[in-house]
Model the fold of this input.
Amino acid sequence: MADIDVALAGRSYRVKVGAGLLDRVHAEAHAFLDPYGKRAVPVVADENARRLLGERLQASLRSAGHAIDWYEVTPGEGSKSWAELERLTDWLLDRGITRSDHVFALGGGVVGDLVGFACAILKRGCGFVQLPTTLLAQVDSSVGGKTAINASAGKNLIGAFHQPALVLADTGCLATLPQREMRAGLAEVFKYGLLGDAGFFARVDKDSPAILGCDDDTLEPVIAHCVGMKARIVADDERETKDARALLNFGHTFGHALEAETGFSDRLLHGEAVALGMVLAARFSARRGLISLADAERVANALARAGLPTEIAALGLDCDGTTLAHHMRNDKKAEASTVPFILLRSLGEAFVARDVDLADVAAFMDEQLRAH
Done:
């Protein structure tokens, strides 16, 4: 089992990665369970996660004398909404949750984001424990304290920084995922290599079949590597006030625009949008003369080998580049009249570019919509 410290002043917490952790929640998270006494423990779960994994969690808590009070969330980005946030906070208040209590989140990034934001605002802040069950959540969204819901204007525009008290990432949970979900999570794994570790990018390219096959000997060190990279970045720049944490958004500005245009639906999963966004960011970097076109295509080819989408023309979008650039203007990372883009100086060296003309982005996107 890997054990990573997210070192924040006065609020450090552990991220544990390994097979079987869901069966040991009663032991690993006892400090957050024991205060409930005879009260049922609130667990917010994705419907699929509860169906596939709920009995394992229930058995673990039952072994320590705890019952579960379940709240189920419909899978998909549509649950990151004002309406769902209101229902969840009312449910938690009805159960008398106090500021010293901890809510447990079982599921992927949607559940983690929703529960984290609810806990950030409930009574001005209560605790929560992340039990991420998807590859994307285990390597990225469960760590770092970014919590949010979506708005009509864009993705993750309403939220707060609120760190979990503990993250238990059971790699065994990943065997329950459809391959499409595994590939979506793999996109975020590739991201860590591209933004800061070229050797890791090459390793993930080579090991993609084993990762997608849920080989535990491969998964644990790969997930731990990603979490370790993110932990160091978050410790240095918790609230994204410097460029360090912004690098984690590599592929996301382009990707969020595509998610907005496809209605934040299953038509394009978040990880798939990130994969397309990374290809677009690499090609746009090549367009600006920062990297070679050959290197940009190395990115596209690695993602394609892993079964991820690499061409936006294949989405069949009924829009032009200007429309997509407009979505980017509404991105939460926009600053005054500019939109910062994460681009590449080389594979493994990302940087924040603040001199990008959205008209140039629109023209580039028009080219990509017509390509291939």
About this structure: The chain has a mean pLDDT of 96. Residues 2-176 form a domain with the Rossmann fold fold (CATH 3.40.50.1970). DSSP finds 15 helices and eleven strands in the chain. The two ends are 44 Å apart (CA to CA).
